[in-house]
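Handout, tutorial session.
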Amino acid sequence: MMTPMAPLELHLLATPKAAPELRHHLRAHGFDVRLCATELLTNVIDHLGEGTPVTVRVGGTAVGDRTRIEVTDPDPRALPVLLSAGETAESGRGLALVDALAERWGVEQGPDRKTVWCELRN
């Protein structure tokens, strides 16, 4: 039986150099967890701008067989949209990757923030 990992919470500024820092903090997790967390962080950079403050949380779920990744930012209006990127498109694949890898994903909106989350089977 695997021992569950302690939940992780990081407060970062969404910048390109934050992505490898985030992957480093998640090195005990599998590739899919690191990839999805990085894609959700990159979405904040791309859609809200570099330097946006974010909170990243990674931990288990109540069911116990999934890892939940959450990225919270201060803009409740800029909602993620699943796009179908063309073969030559240079962007638009991040959320498609999350959608393909995750068991489920979604958005929780608050009055002054939103959290984009996904859950991956362990």
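The second record follows below. Compare its token runs with those of the first.
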Amino acid sequence: MEDFEKRWKPVEDMLTERFGKKPNMEAILFLIGVNEINNLKKKYTKEQKQDLMHVAVCTLLSQSGYFELDGYDKDGWPHFKELQPVPKMEMMEQETFLKEHVIAYFAGHEEA
């Protein structure tokens, strides 16, 4: 667990520095979703925010082979297909699982 905290802290610090406050998991997923569709708008509907978070989760879990990009719709939104079911987990375990994928996501995007 100590190793995880050492790897999570720099990601959290980078996001806090960039946005002026420590983001929760929903905010992090929203940011990743916006990054993935590459279409920043001033306002999103509640449904669009949920869709952005869904894009983020699928993008993150595609790193581990749970999902795969299946193409884009006419509006440029990515669609994914499930390759294998995500294991059932307790809430805290699920958050750590997602955070591990967030760490890998940002590690892969540092060069960009």
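Points raised in discussion: The first helix runs from residue 2 to 19.
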